[in-house]
Every structure is written in structure tokens, then in C-alpha cells.
């Protein structure tokens, strides 16, 4: 498998496409205005200490001072050298005995500023890697609670050996469960190097300076997406190419040789029609080459994918047609999961197959395609209803949630009432209003399609209602209104 990574950069947005064997498999988008502060490490200056609230305000160079509570101050155990977090049940030392006004203090943002409230801080620093989280002030080796209990002890022992005695603690993240020692070792080296850099910078800059920012999408490309199969990493910005080259030389030297500055006249995403792929990845219907198609419905709780034969009649008999459509669909579904970054519970409704060997072959192909996904997936067998239930770990927002918002007309339902249904609602409401009020006239303000219906097919019903209530009903078309919107004005 050959993999190419294309990076399209602009001041407002960074887009990354992962292309495998000529087909787009993953899309990543980051917008400059949406990058948060959580994870950033600052050298703050204590502005005020409030003993009554057991908290302090820290100036980190933002518009509003940030907030530090005593529970988020990292302390040392009085009986030994092992540090502990006050919020883990121990009685904290009063905050006024730990920090003082004017003090320079290394802090990390743990909660974004909201409205008039400043960011929330902690003095316990943690640096996230691809597989691990590094706790430089701790010596604890932890394992994600989401990893099965039976595997935790073995993984903890492996981590102790890999971490060595250089100090600092680590937490193994869920996606590191199946990582090999080399991958874990590379993450440990990267995290320790990042911490040394933070400490070095903190000695050279004045208070209220940013010491460490969570990696940008461009930097995460080198850390998380580059593998042995990666042939090239092409960037269409000279400035960002130089920045990536510098970052890679320090932290990811193996990836630097694959970096290229794209100078072509055509936009870099046009090389593989990626903008068209993005448009298709936002559509509900996905066409298959054979003539079949998928219907993808994403809801709050789960995602459903329905497979249909469509116009595919190429096989010699109906069973073969269904089998070949399901085989193609299994490849397309695995790709769509990565492309759209769908996570959580996913239900796949393949076309019903009579033969057991066909079901086994489709399931084997589906699991094989899922195995190429860098995100952890689990897929069960066919249920007694013929459905395949699977899960895919949520790593970030789906493509649709990132690029789209609910439709203002249908409010996310995906459907709107027909013009006739709206017209009948209006007739019922006029009747209801006529029983309570005695206006001179009723005026209906609605969308052009609804007004057109009243003037044509429903004109007799409108006239009958007007005669029944003894009041005239006038009509006004409003192009700005959605089909379900209307107003009944009493004149």
C-alpha cells in the first residue's frame, strides 16, 4: 500500500488528506479561530491570592486573568518525595502558604474561558502524545480505564521497563493498547524531549509567556499520520513547509525526508479531486461502482448504513448479485467510516444473503478493510436480523459536524412538511383563531409554494372556510420564509 499525505494551508484553515493507492481515505480539518487553549502551558504571574475562596487569579497574558483553585495545585507529600494531587482525597495545604502575589508559576489550561469567566488552570502539567500522556511531576505508571482489566497489569509492566528510571510518569491511552514497543518508545522520547524544551524556555522568557501549545494539525500529521507506507508529505505553503521541517528535524527526524514543498500551478487538492470527495462525504447517498449504493444516516446515538443493489444486475443470478454488491459495499463502508470520521455505535444493514459462505466471505472482507483503520474498531457477526453491529472509537468530531450545521428549515430532521400539510395547518389555525377573536380580516403570510397551493388546488377549501367564519382571508407570499413557516395576521 502506497500512502501520500497532502496538506492545503491557508491562514484561516488547514486541510489534510490521506491518499492510499490513489483514493482519499481520511480528511482532517482545523480552523484557526477554533483552536482552543486547553493543554497550553504558560509561565504565569500570580495577580491575586484569595484565601477566603482558596483560589488565585493568574495573569497568563490573556484578556482576562485565569483562575487557579487549591485543588488544582500540585503538592508534595509531607512524609516523602512522591507528589500527589490535592483533589485525590488528601487535605490540601492552604493556597496562601503555597503561592504569593507576583510569583512566576508554570501552569496549564484545563478549561477554556467561557463568557466573562477566565480560563481554569492547574499546576500539574501533562503532555499528550499519540499513545501516552506524560506526567513530568509524577512517577506513576497508569493505564486507561477503558482497557480491559486483565490486560492492564501486563501493559503497566511493559511501560515500567520502557520508561526506565529517567523520572516522570506515564498514562497509556486507549489507542496504545495494541502498540509495539518501538512505537511506545518513540512516544516516550518525543514527550521527554517536549518537556525538556518547556523547562528550557521557562528559564529564558518573562512571566505571561506561552511555553507550550498543543500541537497544530500540521505537527500532528508528522506525529500521528506518517508511517512506513507514507511515500510523500506534500505542503502547498513554503512558510509551513519550513516550520514543519524544523519541527520534524527536532522531534520526528524519520519523517523529514518525506516532506516536499508543492509548487504546482493547480491547487494541491485538485490532484486527487479531493474537494469533490469532501462533497460526496457530506452526502447521505454513496454510489457504488457496480450500480448499488449506500445510505448513511448519522444520529446522536448511532450511525446506520444501509446497502442497496440499486441498478446492479450484472451477475448471473440474484444470489451472486447480492453477494458482489455486499462485497463492494464492505470496502466502501470501511472507507466512508474513515473519510467521514464516524465513531460510536454503527449498524450496517447488508442485503440479506441466503448462503452461509457468502455471509462469512462478506464479514471477512469487512473486517479486513476495517483492519486498515488507524482508529480502533470492533465488528461483531451477523445478528439474527441480518445486521452487523460494530463500534469505532471517537477521536474527534465527524466531518459533517465540523463542516455543517442543522438546516434552519428542517432543524436537523432532514425532512420538511409538504406544502399541503402546512396549508391544512393554516386552515385549522384560522378556524381556532376565529372562535377566540373577532378581527375584520385574516391575512396569511407564508412561503410561495403554500400561497400558490391556496390560489390553485386549495382555493375551494379556503373560500369555504372564509364563508363559514364570515371573515375575508387574504394571502401574502413571502420568499424569505421556509416551507413550514407561516404567520396569521389579525387585521
Topology of this protein?
Layout (H helix, E strand, L loop, with lengths): L2 E8 L2 E8 L2 E9 L9 E10 L4 E5 L6 E4 L4 E3 L6 E3 L18 E8 L8 E3 L4 E2 L3 E4 L5 E3 L5 H15 L5 E4 L8 H22 L6 E4 L4 H9 L4 E6 L2 H14 L1 H4 L2 E3 L12 H8 L3 E3 L5 E6 L3 E7 L9 H23 L3 E6 L6 H15 L6 E6 L5 E5 L6 H5 L15 H18 L5 E5 L1 H8 L3 H11 L3 E5 L8 E5 L1
Parallel strand pairs: 1-16, 13-14, 16-17, 20-21, 24-25
Antiparallel strand pairs: 1-2, 2-3, 4-5, 4-9, 4-15, 5-6, 7-8, 9-10, 11-12, 12-14, 18-19, 19-20, 21-23, 22-23, 24-26
Helix pairs in contact: 1-2, 3-4, 7-8, 10-11, 10-12
Distance between the termini: 72 Å
Radius of gyration: 30 Å
Helix content: 25-40%
User: Which blocks of ≥5 consecutive residues have pLDDT under 50?
Assistant: 77-87
**Count of extended strands:** 26
Q: What proportion of the residues form beta strands (DSSP E)?
A: 25-35%
Give the overall shape, derived from the CA principal axes.
Answer: globular
**How many helical stretches?**
12
SSE-based structural type:
alpha+beta
Q: What are the key terms here?
A:
Nucleotidyltransferase, domain 5, 491 residues, 6-stranded mixed beta sheet, 6-stranded antiparallel beta sheet, 12 helices
Describe this structure in words.
- This protein is of the alpha+beta class and 491 residues long.
- The protein has four domains: 3-35 and 216-274, Nucleotidyltransferase, domain 5; 125-209; 282-403; 419-490, Hypothetical Protein Ychn, Chain: A (3-Layer(aba) Sandwich), CATH 3.40.1260.20.
- It is built from twelve helices and 26 strands.
- Strands 4, 5, 6, 9, 10 and 15 form a six-stranded antiparallel sheet that branches. A six-stranded mixed sheet has the order 18-19-20-21-23-22, covered by helices on one side. Strands 3-2-1-16-17 form a five-stranded mixed sheet, sandwiched between helices.
- α1 packs across α2 (181-202), α3 packs across α4 and α10 (419-436) runs parallel beside α12.
- Residues 77-87 have low confidence and may be disordered.
Amino acid at each position: 500500500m502506497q500512502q501520500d499525505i497532502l496538506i492545503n494551508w491557508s491562514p484561516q484553515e488547514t486541510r489534510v488528506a490521506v491518499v492510499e493507492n490513489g483514493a482519499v481515505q481520511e480528511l482532517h480539518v482545523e480552523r484557526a479561530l477554533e483552536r482552543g487553549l486547553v493543554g497550553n502551558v504558560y509561565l504565569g504571574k500570580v495577580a491575586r491570592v484569595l484565601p477566603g475562596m482558596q483560589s488565585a487569579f493568574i495573569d497568563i497574558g490573556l484578556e482576562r486573568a485565569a483562575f487557579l483553585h487549591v485543588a488544582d495545585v500540585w503538592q508534595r507529600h509531607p512524609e516523602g518525595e512522591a507528589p500527589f494531587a490535592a483533589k485525590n482525597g488528601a487535605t490540601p495545604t492552604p493556597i496562601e502558604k503555597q503561592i504569593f502575589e507576583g510569583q512566576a508559576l508554570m501552569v496549564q489550561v484545563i478549561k477554556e474561558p467561557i463568557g466573562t469567566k477566565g480560563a481554569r488552570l492547574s499546576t500539574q502539567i501533562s503532555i499528550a502524545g499519540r499513545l501516552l500522556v506524560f506526567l513530568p511531576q509524577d512517577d506513576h505508571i497508569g493505564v486507561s480505564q477503558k482497557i480491559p482489566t486483565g490486560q492492564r497489569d501486563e501493559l503497566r509492566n511493559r511501560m515500567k521497563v520502557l520508561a526506565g528510571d529517567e523520572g516522570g510518569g506515564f498514562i497509556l491511552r486507549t489507542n496504545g493498547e495494541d502498540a509495539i514497543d518501538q512505537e511506545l518508545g518513540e512516544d516516550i522520547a518525543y514527550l521527554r524531549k517536549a518537556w525538556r524544551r518547556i523547562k528550557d524556555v521557562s528559564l529564558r522568557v518573562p512571566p505571561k509567556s506561552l511555553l507550550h501549545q498543543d500541537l497544530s494539525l500540521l505537527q500532528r500529521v508528522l506525529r500521528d499520520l506518517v508511517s512506513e507506507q507514507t511515500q510523500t508529505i506534500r505542503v502547498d505553503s513554503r512558510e509551513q513547509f519550513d516550520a514543519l521541517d524544523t519541527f520534524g528535524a527536532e522531534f520526528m527526524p524519520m519523517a523529514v525526508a518525506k516532506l516536499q514543498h508543492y509548487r504546482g500551478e493547480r491547487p494541491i487538492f485538485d490532484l486527487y479531486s479531493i474537494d469533490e470527495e469532501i462533497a460526496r462525504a457530506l452526502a447521505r447517498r454513496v454510489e457504488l461502482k457496480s450500480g448499488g449504493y449506500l445510505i448513511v444516516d448519522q444520529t446522536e446515538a448511532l450511525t446506520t448504513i444501509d446497502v442497496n443493489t440499486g441498478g446492479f444486475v450484472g451477475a448471473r443470478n440474484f444470489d451472486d448479485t447480492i453477494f458482489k454488491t455486499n462485497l463492494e459495499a464492505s470496502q466502501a463502508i470501511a472507507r466512508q467510516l474513515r473519510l467521514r470520521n464516524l465513531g460510536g455505535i454503527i449498524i450496517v444493514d447488508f442485503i440479506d444473503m441466503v448462503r452461509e459462505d457468502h455471509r462469512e466471505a462478506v464479514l471477512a472482507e469487512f473486517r479486513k478493510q476495517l483492519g486498515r483503520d488507524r482508529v480502533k474498531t470492533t465488528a461483531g457477526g451477523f445478528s439474527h436480523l441480518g445486521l452487523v453491529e460494530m463500534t469505532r472509537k471517537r477521536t474527534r468530531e465527524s466531518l459533517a459536524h465540523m463542516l455543517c450545521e442543522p438546516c434552519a428549515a428542517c432543524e436537523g430532521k432532514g425532512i420538511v412538511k409538504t406544502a399541503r400539510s402546512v396549508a391544512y395547518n393554516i386552515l385549522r389555525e384560522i378556524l381556532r383563531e376565529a372562535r377566540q377573536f373577532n378581527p375584520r380580516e385574516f391575512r396569511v403570510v407564508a412561503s410561495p409554494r403554500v400561497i400558490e397551493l391556496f390560489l390553485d388546488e386549495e382555493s375551494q377549501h379556503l373560500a369555504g372556510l372564509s364563508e363559514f367564519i364570515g371573515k375575508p382571508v387574504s394571502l401574502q407570499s413571502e420568499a424569505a420564509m421556509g416551507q413550514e413557516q407561516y404567520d396569521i395576521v389579525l387585521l
